[in-house]
Amino acid sequence: MSRPILVRRLGRQPYVPMWHAMQAFTDARGPDTPDELWLLEHEPVFTLGQAGKWEHVLLPGEIPVVPVDRGGQVTYHGPGQIVAYPLLDLRRLKLGVRELVCGIEQALIDTLAEWNVVAVRRAGAPGVYVGEAKIAALGLRVRRGCSFHGLAFNIDMDLEPFHRINPCGYQGLAVTQLADLGGPGSLASVEDVLLAELVRQFGLEPQRARPQLPSVGRDAPVVPAR
Predict the structure, then answer these.
(1) Which of 95, 103, 117, 192 could form an SS bridge with 201, CB 3.0 to 4.6 Å?
(2) Is there a contact between 4 and 32 (Cβ–Cβ < 8 Å)?
(3) Looking at residue 217, what DSSP letter applies?
(4) Which of 33, 16, 14, 15 lies closest to 214, judged by CA?
(5) What is the dihedral of CA 102, 107, 113, 115, to 10 degrees?
C-alpha cells in the first residue's frame, strides 16, 4: 500500500524563511508525521553547502549568498526554476541516502524524457546532465533519519547568474534549461510530470495540502504563496 505524501505548491518564496521552515518541520516531526513535498520557486539567491568553498563564489554582485546546512557546493536559485523539497522519513520508507539520491535523479531523467530530452547521471557529481551541461542540481541533508533540502530543476530562467559562480564547484561547468531544449517554459506543466515521477520512484500517494507552510513549532513561519 502506498504511503501518503502531502504536496504543497508554494509559489515564489524568499529562500531563508523556507530553509528555516524545513529545519523546524524536520526537528518537530514525529514517527507518525506525514511526509511532505514542497514545490516552489525562489527569489534570486546563491546557496553554499556545508563543504562549499567561498572561492567558487566569483562575482555575486547584488544577489545574496547564504551558507546553508545541505551537502554540495554553491548553486543558484531564481525565478523560472522548479525547486522541490522532499521531506521524507527515510527510516519509515526503508530508504538509504544513496537510494534517495538515485530516485530523485531518475525522476528528473524520466521527467525530461517526456519532452524527448535525453539526460544522464555523472558518477561522483550528483545531479542530472544533458550532454555536457547541468540541468538539475541536488543538495540534501538527513537529520534524525529524515531528509530535507532537495533539487533545483532549470526550466525557463535567466542563466546569467550561473556565470558568477563555479556551479557545484566545477569551474566552467555549462548549465542549461528545459525551455532551450524544446520543452515548455511553463513551470506548472513540468511540475505535474515531476511530481508524478517523484511519487512513483518512492511508492508514495500524493495528497494536496494547503499552499502554505505547516505550523510545526518555533521558527516555522507561515508564508502564503504569492
Answers:
(1) 103
(2) no
(3) S
(4) 33
(5) -140
Beta bridge partners of 3: 204
Report the run of H or E that residue 12 belongs to, with start and end. Answer: strand 3-13
What does the block give as the cell for 117?
A: 530530452
Sign of the torsion angle spanned by Cα atoms 99, 40, 175, 183: positive
* Dist CA 168 CA 1 (whole Å): 37
Q: Is 146 a catalytic residue?
A: no
Q: Which of 128, 151, 165, 168 is catalytic?
A: 168
Q: For residues 209 and 178, give the distance between their C-alpha atoms in angstroms, rounded to a whole number.
A: 27
CA 63 from centroid of its chain's CA atoms: 19
User: Whole-number mean pLDDT of the chain?
Assistant: 92
Cα 130 to Cα 119: distance, rounded to the nearest angstrom:
5
Contact 146, 26 (CB under 8 A): yes
Residue in 73, 97, 74 with CA at minimum distance from that of residue 86? 97
59-107 pLDDT tens trace: 999 999 999 999 989 999 999 999 999 999 999 999 999 999 999 999 9
The string of DSSP letters for 109-167 reads HHHHHTTT---B--TTS-SEEETTEEEEEEEEEEETTEEEEEEEEESS---GGGGGB-G
> Exposed (0-12), middle (13-18) or buried (19+): which is 154, by Cβ within 10 Å?
buried
On the question of pLDDT at 25 being above 60, the answer is yes
Mean pLDDT of 48-52: 91
